[in-house]
Amino acid sequence: MDQTLAAKRSEKDADTRERLLAAALRIFANRGIASATLREITEEAGANVAAVNYYFRSKEELTRTVLETCMRPINDARLKALQSCVDANEGRTPPLESIIEALVRPMVELSVDPNGGRPPVRLLLQVRALPHPLTNTILAEQFDLIHRHFIDKLSAALPDLPAEEVGLRYDFARGAIMQILGDLDPAARDLPDLKLKQVKNDNERIIRHLVDFISAGFRAPSKT
Predict the structure, then answer these.
(1) Which of 22, 85, 145, 174 is the most exposed, fewest CB within 10 Å of its CB?
(2) Taking 60 as the threshold, does the pLDDT of residue 6 lie above it?
């Protein structure tokens, strides 16, 4: 009996924690982290304010957990895809398009929710637009290693491109991915004449366009 009650308590705790994380992600993505209140989050999650203190201790720790929960699966998948590229080429430098796809595909596939929305993308856009020491630290922890791995492989694939140019184009590539996925979110305003609705729910088409566009940008002649 005691074991049954303990199991039910554990399931309830896990459910409450997940509901708080999901609610925080939605509200952070819609309103920004600074503007969101714990009361809003707990009301959205069907919990009480004390639950945040119990599971996360503070809004700062909740923020950290939300960002890590969003980004770790995507970045783990990126590293795995990049390593698969290397393995498929028997340790040689993979083709440029394969490296770019390893960067693009996990973000496209893992950032979308069942309704076609992209809360992780909206949250990251908010965080980058409104920098804060806490979120800057979290982003560094989540992304710096990823950036180094990809820039190293891109530099090897483009030996004639100066290192600073590789880094700059990598930043442009990241911006293109985030901008397009942000525009494809149903919450975003449709831009006139761009016909983005045609690809909103077609991940493969989005990936193909992004890989082709970014690869062409990397292959453009250097201006330096």
Answers:
(1) 145
(2) no
